[in-house]
Amino acid sequence: MTRTNLLTNWFEKQGWKPFPFQKQTWKAYLEGKSGLLHAPTGLGKTYAVLGGPLLDHLNHEANGLKLEGLLILWITPLRALANDTLKSIQKPIDDLKIAWNLGARHGDVSAYSRKKQREKYPSILIITPESLSLLFTYPETRERFKFLQCVVVDEWHELLGTKRGVQTELALARLRAWNTSLRIWGLSATLGNIQQAMRILLGKQHANHSQIISGKLNKKIQISTIIPPEIENFPWSGHLGLKLVPQVVEQLNDVKSTLLFTNTRSQTELWYQGILKERPEWKEKIALHHGSIDREMRLEVERKLKEGELKVVVCTSSLDLGVDFTPVDQVIQVGSPKGIARLMQRAGRSGHQPGQTSRIIGVPTNAFELIEFSAARSALKANQIESRIPCLNPLDVLLQHINTIALEGKTALLELQSEVLSTYSFSQLSEQQWQWAVDFVSNGGKVLKAYPQYRKVVIDAKGILSINSSPLARMHRMSIGTITGSSEVLVKFISGKTLGSVEEYFISKLKPNDSFQFAGKKLQLIRFRDMTAYVRLATRRSGHTPSWQGGRAPLSSELAEAVSKKIIEKNSRDPEMLAVAPILSIQESESRIPHNGCLLVESTKLPRQFHISFYPFAGRLVNQGLSSLIAYRLTKNHKTTLKTAANDYGFSLQTSNKIEFHELMIRHLISRESLLDDLLACMNATELARRQFRDIASIAGLIIKGYPGQRKKMRQLQSSSTLLYDMFQNYDPKNLLLQQSQREILEGQLEFTRLSKTLERLEKIPVRYQVTERLTPMAFPLWAEILHTEVSSETWHDRIQEMVSKLEDDSNKLLSTI
238 burial class (0-12, 13-18, 19+ CB within 10 angstroms)? Predict the structure, then answer.
């Protein structure tokens, strides 16, 4: 019996039959190829890439050859995936009686286990990018990796376009340099730029002998939507809130298990409490899962879900990836998914087996999100999937990597430079930039050379890099990684049990005895000390819900385009479009239907103010940038004070002074002329760059977050980084890290490239200026957003309802005459 038949027979004993793409991957591996396998969730990507190494081993064994030591590195972006991957891999190894042992290495693995691994590595090691970088600091690693045959990078689409992805690229470049015949395989969900994704994964020297393999197999995804029984003609963001909990509960009644996804951790806490209030008898069958909850609690939720003990888990993207939950019957998405790829990924959590249909139910939080679900369905049918934009030349990651490799004490400078340049991210790195980086880590650069703690790397006469200071070496090992964010505060019961962590800024707003909701519990703050919030169960019913930063994703370009097409589609029979038809009818009667084919600008006179709305359909972040840009340009020529608001479809300006708009004026406002200068001026980019520099300085090793158990507060880190930023600004204004912080602000927070392309599109299409007698349905949520910044939440709701009632009356009178 051939080795391939052995593996095929194993599949048949599991009740499976190998798919063509799995056999294709095995064949490519045995031919010595590297590549990228992309397929929807649940089609068997793990066994597709594992099969090749298994067959290769069986062939070696048949020929009397025995390979020992570390043979396969399996890189995973999430610690949570490690245990599931271990179990999936272990079964065929045991059944085929292959003498391989498995292990995992990440931050949750004990120090004792990590030490034993370094003495004798397992045959297959599942590892995170940070832990792999840490291994490069040890001098014995190169020798211990000499038998490495294959590297698998799981969930490559999640790493792609991030600094963790660049960290992975640099690690792969090092491994390729040690073993030129090394085979590298990436696993990815469907992407819009799959060819580029493979080039980034494999590097420019390794991409020639490679292959992209697709495992689509016509995976069926069924998207339905809960239509609210009543839809207001003038909706605003979040106005449906928890009103749809009864309808959601009806969907939960009919199936054994459900994953209910929300887009933010705050929404997760609220929906958990909302469902529990509706069905208190489900207390033992409903669970909460998001990244701020304690790891042990998350693992317990995952275990119960796999064993069929839970009816519903309310979660965020913490359960998006890779973990195989066979019992899940359906997925519910609360709020717009904001992207087609994200919707596919989450839908794939159900029907997570070959041949099964993945089902996802959309729950709108405002009426316009019905359009987004309908548009996502159409875009999915047309295979309009988002691309992941690569991260280029992040010098903070490069500085960290040079320090990491210097700790090994065996690498020559030219050898390291060759490795770095072989990556996609640093392929355009200039000799000047490289020399600047080397000088910065070895001498501290122009400004910091007087301080010994910044002169880390020593380069000897042979060009070998090293770090000779034990304190610097120890501090660097504890600081490896590219994940940054707000300081986390532990939340613990007085009795000692840890619940998880919230951001420092949230806890700092609470006083002792204040109550808040977290980890599915109502808690009362007792005291806040040493970055720990001590709590007890609260007796009050009301309380705050933590609002974590960075939770609101903008509409992707692809979904925005699909929404624009859907909104003007004639005779659509989609239930979502039928439901919002009255709203669009009012919009058309009062003004026009906005879309990508023209720029609609509406002006409405309200009591004591004028409200002007633009609809570029460019996503929230770009629209925020455009609102600030146009407000800045207006105030240069008009003495007025402007308030702004933005959502995914458009943005609005509000002023007490009347401004006469016309097409030529609007053309000037949306011109790309002096775009960068105007944008930097209106956004206070210097202050934004200071805050961005904090993360860059942390990754580059310029500021240290502290030792375990003695973490510095965010304001301490900000103070330290601001000091460095100002020193560079005053004495080294051409410092490349300063330039990087400005570049990251432009792309990360302002999406400058997308903003510029949006203006280029707007310059080419007609402008339609419309004066309206009252707020239109599209303008109303923007007006409500501005109002929210002026009044308390209680007063805000009253004012909203008052305006809704007036607009509803006016629109009903108008429609009755048509």
Answer: middle
60: which 2 tokens?
């070696």
Integer Cα distance of 339 and 350 in angstroms: 18
The pair phi, psi for residue 328, each rounded to 5°, is -70, 125
What number of other Cβ atoms are within 10 A of residue 599's Cβ?
24
The model carries a pTM of 0.87
* Burial class of residue 789 in the structure, from the number of CB atoms within 10 Å of its CB (0-12 exposed, 13-18 middle, 19+ buried): exposed
Q: What is the mean pLDDT of the chain?
A: 87
48, amino acid identity: A
Instruction: Give the position of tokens 């490289």.
Output: 434
pLDDT at 719 over 90: no
**DSSP letter, residue 452:** G
pLDDT at 684 over 90: no
User: Within 10 Å of residue 258's Cβ, how many Cβ atoms?
Assistant: 25
Residues 237 and 289: beta-carbon distance below 8 Å: no
Q: Measuring CA to CA, how many Å separate 479 from each of 106, 352, 483? A: 14, 37, 10
- What is the model's pLDDT at position 40? 76
CA 564 to chain centre: 24
Measured distance CA(251)–CA(267) in Å, rounded: 19
CA distance 84 to 324: 7
Q: Indicate the helix (H) or strand (E) that contains 648.
A: none
Q: Are the beta carbons of 600 and 768 closer than 8 angstroms?
A: yes
Phi, psi of 162, rounded to the nearest 5 degrees:
-120, 165
Beta bridge partners of 613: 602, 652
Backbone phi and psi for residue 519, each to the nearest 5 degrees, phi listed first: 55, 30
CA–CA gap between residue 815 and residue 188 (Å, rounded):
50
| Bridge pairing between strands 609-615 and 150-153 | unpaired
CA dist list (Å): 620 to 557, 733, 751:
11, 32, 10
| Ramachandran area for residue 721 (φ above 0: left; ψ -120 to 50: alpha; else beta) | alpha
Helix (H, G, I), strand (E, B) or coil at 301: helix
Match 């965010």 to its residue by tokens: 714
Pairing of strands 521-529, 532-537: antiparallel
pLDDT (tens digit per residue) in 145-175: 999 999 999 999 999 999 999 999 999 999 9
- The closest of 452, 459, 224 to 359, measured between CA atoms, is 224
| Of 315, 248, 304, 238, nearest in space to 275 by CA | 248
Q: CA dihedral in degrees (322, 324, 330, 334; nearest 10)?
A: -30
| Predicted pLDDT of residue 395 | 97
pLDDT above 90 as % of the chain: 54
Task: Count CB-CB contacts under 10 A for residue 248.
Answer: 22
pLDDT band at 1 (very low <50, low <70, confident <90, very high): very low
Q: How far apart are CA 755 and CA 732, in angstroms?
A: 30
DSSP 679-698: HHHHTTHHHHHHHHHHHHHH
Residue 426: count of CB within 10 angstroms of its CB: 26
Supply the pLDDT for residue 420.
98
- Residue for token digits 């023209």? 598
Tell which wins on pLDDT, 488 or 434. 434
Length of the chain: 818
Find out whether 502 and 489 touch, Cβ atoms under 8 Å: yes
Start-to-end CA distance of the chain, whole Å, equals: 79
The set of long-range contacts for 811-818, using a CB threshold of 8 Å and a minimum separation of 24, is 811/233, 811/234, 811/586, 811/589, 811/590, 814/586, 814/589, 814/590, 815/585, 815/586, 815/589, 818/589
- Here the tokens at position 362 are 């959309």
Neighbours of 646 (CB within 10 A): 24
Q: Which residues have a Cβ under 8 Å from the Cβ of 300 and sit 6 or more positions away?
A: none
Q: Which amino acid is at 399?
A: L
